[in-house]
Queue: 2 jobs
Job 1
Amino acid sequence: MKRAVSISIGSSKRNKSTQIDLLGETVVIERIGTDGDMEKAAQLYANLDGKVDAFGVGGTDLGFCIDGKFFPLNSIQFMFKSIKKTPLVDGNGLKILLESQVAKILQNNLDETIKPNKVLLASAVDRWGLAESFRLAGYTCLYGDVMFALGLSIPVYSINTLRRLISVLIPVVSNLPFNWIYPTGESQDKRTHKWQKYFEWADVIAGDCHYLHRYMPDYVPGKIIVTNTTTQSDRDFFKQTGAYGLMTTTPVLDGRSFGTNMMEAALIAVSGWKKPIDYTQNSEYLNHLKTLIESIHLEPHLQILNP
């Protein structure tokens, strides 16, 4: 039996452990939240190194994958310094390979009378594959990176403008205290209504579940939500907003969709991968992960909430 553990700096209220079968092997997948305590997370990584088969990085990313290049998030790297033996992934592999298919799979699973063409992306920088899937499918895209991460009322509709902003902001953002740009611990449960007109404008609302839960209006009927790491409580919330459907980019297991980092860690655990993790375009690691994904037919999953 294999064991994959996602150590998250998010809320411990979302902790979960279950057992699944992958590639003919049983793997225990477990999420451990530290309520925003990065020192505690670092200690957990140190204590479990070599004792589990793969680590997932939850509540943050090792870095950002943009246009085939990888940009490390410097402010959180200290948490992983003690890891010497256990492979460490953050879900970027699944984001690149699975989320790039979302727009196509979404349309294939919708009634032909439903034709969404406008998407609000809470943050493209940490889900580039997702953002590109909608852009390449012909959607009008609103990139909310400056709004959601920095709190500034600057919607971006042009991919070229976004690329220019990224070239300027990545060096700054990667060194900021992480809780300045993303909710951690108990702050993940707080609701702050913001950017309502942009939520109302969109047909599809996509991005990190914590961003959406924090800022989404109480009632925006008919929307299609594309996100991940959803619990039953999250699904209830989206249903109450009047959302038509919820697409999670990983499957629902034992009542919830685990984060991409958890699912990627599970795949690495059962495959026995020991080489360096490389998220750059066409790397040996990404080709290996693609083969694993295809072998188990892993793809995004759509649930209809309000028919």
Note: The mean pLDDT is 91.
Job 2
Amino acid sequence: MRLRRNYGISADHYDSMLAAQGGGCAICRVAPGEGTSLAVDHDHACCPGRKKSCGECLRGLLCEDCNRVLGMFRDDPARFESAIGYLARGRS
């Protein structure tokens, strides 16, 4: 019910998305644990002001950590590129 209500998809659609991702998070590939599922990620810019997704802007299924990072970085690719550059420089 929650998938249909919040994202406009069925449990079967969720399962097919999970299978297409190889059974794990679209970013880090971790598989969902016992009794847990992956979050449905969607482009928040697509549905501004809405608490629910239109269902057309779904990007994939993410573990809690990866989903949280996207939110903290506000889906901004420049922040991710900057973070990658920072990590690649190593310790100074």
Note: The two ends are 50 Å apart (CA to CA).
